[in-house]
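Tokenised fold entry reproduced for absentees:

. . .
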Amino acid sequence: MDMYRDSYVLALMVDGKIQKESDDGTVLIPFGSEYVLRLKNKLRKRAVADVWLDGRIACKGIVLEANGTVDLERFVADGNLTEGKRFKLARLTDPKVD
């Protein structure tokens, strides 16, 4: 998946590899896969992004430096990028799903 809009790019990665997006904009990954969202700013000025997953804020106000890239692998709590639940594709019936 490699979504591009106004010099900003979002890619979904599994095992360090960018996943391909189909013509209709969907990305297929197996249930149980942990994934990373790669945000890229292709402008020469800083940008700020909010990331939402499943109707919940995953990260609010993340700064993308000029021509910079940020890999998000989990929900960010109190600005901490190293703690919190990792992104994982799970069935709704999975007992670990909130």
The first strand starts at residue 2 and ends at 5. The chain has a mean pLDDT of 88. The CA atoms of residues 55 and 93 lie 18 Å apart.
